[in-house]
Amino acid sequence: MRIGRQTYVIDYGHLALITLIAGAVFWYLFDARSVSLSVNNLLLVQPVAIFALAMYLFILPQCFRKVDAVAAPRAGGEKDPFAIEVSTGHSDIIRMVALGVSLGLMVFLLDVIGFDIAIFLFAAAAMAICGERRPVHLLVFSLAVTLVTIYGFRALISYPMPTTLL
Amino acid sequence: MIDITAFNDALGIMFTSVGSWGWIVPGLIVGLVFSAIPGISITMAMAIVLPMSLYMDFFSAIVFLTSVYTGAGFGGSVPAILMNIPGSPSSFATTFDGYAMSQKGEHNEALGYALFASTLCGIAGYLLLLLVIEPLADIVLRIGPVEMFAVAIWGMMLLGSLGSTYISRGLLAAAFGILLGTVGMNTAGFTRGTLGLPVLLDGIAPIPAMIGLLAASQLLSLATRDYIIEAEGSREVSLRKILKGCWGTMKYPGVLLRGSIIGIIIGAVPGVGSSIGNLIAYAETKRTAKDSATFGKGNPKGVIAAESAVASGEGGSMATMLALGIPGGGATAILIAAFMMHNIVPGPSFIETQKPMVYAIILNNIVQAIVLLAVGIGFIYVASNIMKVRTRYVLPAILVIATLGTYAVTGEAAGPITLFVFALLGYALNRYEYPVSAVVVGILLGRMLETEFLRSYQLSGGNPMYILERPAAMAIFAVMFASLAMTAWGKRKQNRAEAAEALAMERLRDEAAANAAHTTPSKG
């Protein structure tokens, strides 16, 4: 994107994240105000929401970086040992998205297809996403995870766990 | 310094609940195993086993979770020493000299130094806590809702400002966390942000949200890292040499003391935690040592300093948590969640009404540190095999356990769904350098913050000048703004220094390139 003579690179992912957070905060403030304008309702929520929205406006420019700044490595260049490394490679992102989708499918299908089948399918999918290609390993380990977790948690918790086969 | 009656009652609790002692060894093993697996942090280990503690009585649950905490503190140092891979961020400084010793064939001694420093300084941290809990109780009992609100806000600000490279991102994360924590019906009876879902009337389930943010989100990012560790770790383990290292630790009382003091202080400050404490202790020991040139080349003092800070930091963070009910970071946030699961709120009233229980928890942690010595030595024998477990096996198993754990807490699909939503949120926050722990603590403290703020408002009759009658609250707010300003100033200064250094390096590279161009004879 060009503004005047300067070219900017937009970090769309970051922009989407903070806009999502700001949208949620704005909606929450709106919802709270629609319930009541009483001080007892808004005493903490309103100032904190306004503060969060102000922070959003403050962070917003960080999503737009000058091309020169992007090209140059980050000042200092030293790796932060505490930062959780999140890969940015194309294939890595696909892997992470695939794992996220698998987790979502398992979570939403637990009650539908049964805990046993959902867990088995998820374990196999997650192993495949992480690079396991040997069918016997996929099958045996996923089955082991399913059996141990289903019987283990059934012994531990008092709630019913709907299953199809076990 | 010690309330003798409460102390005797604590001994009574310890001996009448002998069953809970049985949780020490499993807890230590869970902590050691999880933190030895590269990529799994102390917080993750605790978050994954948290739902299991719901089915224990309160004391057993705390014994189990603190054992995981203690075990994980040392567990991370084993791959750090043997393979130069810190099992958790808090073992980062251990790699500097630990791995160098390992390369010289002194890995047994290094493990001995690390283990004994962990044991001794873990005990030291809790002994100090045992002594200060009584005076602390006297102080915190004078804390009213205004001061409590001020302390909680201060803790959130520290978590937000110190937990991230960017203060603004940290503060946004903290504010967002607080708002998430206030969803549902507040103490005045107003219901907000429930989307019409009855399940949200009591607010967002904190435990599934916490497991999603702290564990599942990081597991998602591990999908790309299938660790394959070469046979280098399968070095010979010698009990005699480990014990020699343990004994050798006693030669450095100054290093142990300095590391412990740094660990306790850093551990007690919300937002800093043992991952910074070990680096500061290492740097300070190196700075003051006569043989500082040998640091990084296998100096045992480096290992001892780093490990002593990690172990004693646990006592420091427990002090803040028990006295004020404010978690210093992810691990103590999980402990607070465990308290809440048993309908117990840590903080001033807990110390006042449950002092024997507080002493019993502290005494049990001292026992854990001693048991760690034996379990830790046994663990070293099997550690090299655990470290070689590949991510492709660990990841699906842990994600399934985490998901079922949230189901065990809520008893309905809402738990796993909350985990999933917060795992995605946590992943995105991690990716863009927002401190996830600030969101977690916000969710935990949001309701308490609102309640204390409402009580302060009602006490003051809506008069803001009421704060002038509360000098302690004013002092806390003053310190809060000063520390925030100092952090901002420090980070600005650091950024400028880094930019200047980068510029200087670039100039040097340019000059070197120009010189090379001059000296290289032209072809043809």
Automatic annotation (TrEMBL), chain B:
Transmembrane segments: 23-50, 62-82, 110-132, 139-160, 166-183, 195-216, 260-282, 322-345, 357-381, 393-426, 471-490
Signal sequence annotation: none
Coiled coil spans: none
InterPro entries on file: DUF112_TM
Every DUF112 domain range: 23-440
Keyword line: Membrane, Transmembrane, Transmembrane helix
The protein's name in its UniProt record: Tripartite tricarboxylate transporter permease
Source organism of the structure: Ancylobacter koreensis
Highest classification ranks of the organism: Bacteria, Pseudomonadati, Pseudomonadota, Alphaproteobacteria, Hyphomicrobiales
